[in-house]
Specification:
Helices cover 0% and strands 42% of the residues. β2 and β3 form a beta hairpin. It starts with 39 loop residues before the first strand and ends with a strand. It has a four-stranded antiparallel β-sheet, with no helix packed on it. The chain has 159 residues and is mainly β.
């Protein structure tokens, strides 16, 4: 008994032993989605600033004036806000300082914004990080008390 095998295509009459190459094709369909995941760590240094005065002021009853031998100044003038990007996308971190009240104390941020690169797979310790530093200046008026008052707020926006 004999069996006949059929295949698409022709051998073009080359005869027994001839070879015709047949292409084998592979395709890849990437249907995996990678949603954006935002994860940004924010750390800030202590935002309490103390203005200190020390020394003596001696009253002169004849002139009704003080002889001033005092010194004064801030215990510190800067504090940092640091952002670290663990997201799978680049982020922009923006800072806005908004003063509150009339305290005669001024504050500015060293950077209004910066970009942080996306996290690198399997390298969390190499995450992109940067800081903006708040700097205060001025001599506080009598609205700033020993109990402390809010002189402003920092708003951090991540986009």
């Amino acid at each position: 008994m004999s069996t006949t095998a059929l295949a698409a295509g022709n051998v073009d009459g080359a005869g027994v032993g001839s070879q015709d190459p047949i292409d084998v094709t592979a395709k890849y369909n990437d249907g995996v989605t990678e949603p954006t995941v935002y994860s940004v760590d924010l750390q800030w240094e202590d935002m309490t600033f103390t203005y200190n005065e020390s020394g003596t002021r001696i009253w002169n009853p004849d002139t009704h004036t003080y002889t001033d031998s005092t010194t004064s100044g801030w215990d510190k003038t800067t504090a940092a806000v640091t952002a670290t990007n663990h997201s799978n996308t680049e982020v922009t971190v923006s800072f806005t300082y908004t003063p509150q009240g009339d305290t005669d104390v001024n504050a500015t941020m060293s950077q209004d914004s910066f970009k942080l690169a996306a996290g690198v797979e399997n390298k969390p310790n190499e995450a992109a990080t940067d800081s903006s530093i708040l700097t205060i200046t001025g001599t506080p008026n009598n609205s700033v008390t020993a109990e402390g008052v809010t002189i402003g707020t920092i708003t951090v926006t991540i986009e």
